[in-house]
Design brief:
Shape: globular
Oligomer: single chain
Number of strands: 20
Largest sheet: 9 strands, mixed
Number of helices: 12
CATH architecture of one domain: 3-Layer(aba) Sandwich
Strand content: 25-35%
Distance between the termini: 60 Å
CATH superfamily of one domain: P-loop containing nucleotide triphosphate hydrolases
Amino acid sequence: MLWKRGGKGGKEERKGTLVKSRDPSYKVVESYWVHNPFAKVTIVSLPGSEGSFQYFVEEAPLDGREREAWKKLVAILRKELRPPETLETDISTYVLKEAKRIAHKYRRSLGKFDAESWEKIFYYVVRDLAGYGDLNVLMLDPNIEDISCNGLNRPIYIWHRKYESIPTNIEFVDEIAYNNFVLKLAHMAGKHISSANPILDAMLPEKHRLAATFMREVSTFGSTFCIRKFRSDPFSIVDLIKLGTLDERIAAYLWVLLENKMSIMIIGGTGAGKTSMLNALTTLIMPNDKIITVEEIAELNPPRQNWVQLVSRRAFRFGSSDTTSISLFDLVKVSLRYRPDYIVVGEIRGEEAYVLFQAVATGHGGLCTMHADSLDHAVKRLTSPPMNVSEVYIPLMNLCIYVARVDLPKKKGGLSFGRRIIKMWEIVDYGKYNLISEWIPSKDRFRSNFSKSIL
């Protein structure tokens, strides 16, 4: 993707994308390298709007000769690049190795450059062939949680761990190139998206979650996508204690419950940290206990060997036949044949909830998450269609944890917000709940009364 360098407050136009240059008059709030020395990020404060920030991706530009060599090298690679021998091969490392081999083979045609120029050329080759092109810096930045594009000619937004939701200096300006990029994301995830099947929920190779729509079939502004990034090393319970999500006493209490096969449900809104909490809880289960995880998208990663991961499958079909779809309901049923100690459902929202509660009733441990902002609302969802869990089964879920993203009274680790366990209830009976712990916002501490515990 070629650059046209802009001047002060100018723009850099590439094939299909528009990358705005940073106005030197903008006040720089923070700047850091993502891929030193070729890609850095600058956060600026926008003039005239206090508290508003923008995220600028700044990459080392190619000069004319470097750009021509890069174009030739990419063209040759597209023709001569052989597939790796195994699926486990790291694609970026493989493309870099092959790029260096081909650059040496065609060194007379490509021209003579110093080592620094070659490194820059290779950076762009790997970025565009093995990475995510203009979005690659966003994907590499560990401070970004979400990346979303709401349509053509709209800035790509990110959720930054420190600055929350802010726009970037990148936007798609060509519809064909934009649709091709969404297709590329689908192919990288090993899935299919088209006008006939315009909605996609998938997992990228780095285990990031991808949601996308294609063209204008269901989204009026054209294709859209949202990438929810996940850590390569999931949070442990110790990590969550250090972050202040819970304290040591709550962690010890949860450990005792899980060692005794109690069942726990985690509730909260989108981005509250439910999945991170769920994954951390699996580390407290007895090491030799067998865990079955059931998910639509494979996100959980318990650090153990005695673990079976089941993932639902969506059918692509025309007509009314649905024999090739495999739902969470089907997977929870089959998980009972594996003699599990714990069944972990990534998110319950349908009839799989009924089967999970039936499994808990037979002595299996259960862990799950659900979207709800209070225990009362969670119970109402459970007892209503399509879950249809009987009221008498509700107390089989021994504990409910409500997690949320909150503003902190004082910054912790440089952040003004964080995730906290707001409340924990032991479920005594339908409509009868025992509040065992709650978060005190003014002090950023937890008030727990485990002497009231009935478990």
